[in-house]
Amino acid sequence: MINETLRDIKGPLSLNNRINIILWLVILILLAILVFLFKFLSRRKKISIIMPQKPAHQIAYEQLEKLKAKDFIRQGKIKEYYSEVSDIIRHYLENRFLLKAPEMTTEEFLFYVRDYSQLISSHKTLLKEFLLACDLVKFAKYVPSSGEMDAIFLSAKKVVDETKEEVPVK
């Protein structure tokens, strides 16, 4: 017979190695999340610093005067004129009220501002008339009269005049 020596059974395997690996993975994941949050928040701060220092209405007035100086109407660039005046007002609304007006269609924008509390009813009506008049020229190939072209510019200025932020007197 073979002389076999009986050996004792092996003890249970230690979980310390697996726990250490899992612990290091959790630490690395948390560290990656912290780095991501730090970069994201520091980027947000930089963006807020870049915000324009001028009031939104002042920027809009300057852009409207630049548009007037381009003399699109006399050159027969009616569609370009209406597109620019519409963009100026949409960007003004974005700067003034933090509305994403440039990124929305007129219908989307009007639906959104319907319940917007910072604009009163007369402002909403004025905006609706202004944007729909611009859309007629931009998309429906409507040819406005010279009086309508003057009126759209005055309407744009009126939107800014009536909705501009009141600067407190010192």
Fold and architecture overview:
It is a single chain. This protein is mostly helical. It has two domains: 14-51; 56-163, no CATH class. The chain has seven helices and no strands. The chain has helices at residues 16-50, 56-70, 72-75, 78-97, 106-113, 121-139, 146-163. Helix 4 (78-97) packs antiparallel against helix 6 (121-139). The longest helix has 35 residues, at 16-50. It is rod-shaped, with a radius of gyration of 31 Å.
Task: Write a short abstract of this structure.
70% of the residues lie in helices and 0% in strands. The protein has 170 residues and is an all-alpha fold.
Summarize this structure as a short list of keywords or feature phrases:
single chain; 170 residues; mainly alpha; 2 domains
What is the ordering of alpha helices and beta strands?
Answer: HHHHHHH
Which blocks of ≥5 consecutive residues have pLDDT under 50? none
Could you tell me how far the N terminus lies from the C terminus, measured between alpha carbons in angstroms? Answer: 110 Å
> What is the 3D form?
rod-shaped
What is the topology?
Blueprint: H1 16-50, H2 56-70, H3 72-75, H4 78-97, H5 106-113, H6 121-139, H7 146-163
